[in-house]
């Protein structure tokens, strides 16, 4: 049984490490798929991936698609692939696309597609003020004030990037599993690195959340999304909510906004 009776819209979130796809049938997110983002990608390769995924999801045709891509060399490949599978021209998050959000940002065109989508979904799902912490190659904080305005954020190296940097820069340091060690004080090289990388990231996120609350002058809802969000939430001192499909829902909301427009 296919899903062709519903209005199928595909949201594609291309990150530096992971590419996530979400199929929306009507208003509902009916299926997700996750791929490793390759270093290089041709339009044919993107199409082969897309065709296989749509087949696995039981989709005969797409009525719409939206692409959020933070890897500039992949944008055209995914745009062409989506255009081949879609009845209408796919939307690409960037200048000229209507967002419906107020931004207190020096240059709104600098805000990445994933950050825009996170803010849109957070405003629709949670009571403001809200802080989104999106974990990936970078750890991004997006801050929405009590009036629903995106007031800016923080961009820091992600936990996996920190681990890779250590292993690459120091010849005798190995790659490690990204999990919390049994104790803060490591008694071997791997546990010492896990403490520095994983628990160091926990301390940084907790500390930055404290500073954000101090600058806002009030506490905010904290939402975690991205790679390892559930594991990170369990380690933080702050009370948080985990929302693993936040970015995809934000992309879909952005597609709906521009259809109405």
TrEMBL record:
- Look at the named UniProt entry and state the broad enzyme category this protein falls under: transferase
- Assembly description: Homodimer.
Reaction(s) the record says it catalyses: (R)-pantothenate + ATP = (R)-4'-phosphopantothenate + ADP + H(+)
Enzyme Commission number(s) from the entry: 2.7.1.33
What are the catalytic residues?
Answer: 114
For this chain, the family text in UniProt reads:
Belongs to the type III pantothenate kinase family.
What are its cofactors? NH4(+); K(+)
SUPFAM superfamilies linked to this entry: Actin-like ATPase domain (SSF53067)
Location relative to the cell? Cytoplasm
Protein known as: Type III pantothenate kinase
Q: Which annotated residues bind K(+)?
A: 134
> What InterPro entries has UniProt attached to this entry?
ATPase_NBD, Type_III_PanK
UniProt entry keywords in alphabetical sequence: ATP-binding, Coenzyme A biosynthesis, Cytoplasm, Kinase, Metal-binding, Nucleotide-binding, Potassium, Transferase
Binding positions for ATP? Answer: 13-20, 137
Give the domain of life: Bacteria
A GO molecular-function annotation? kinase activity
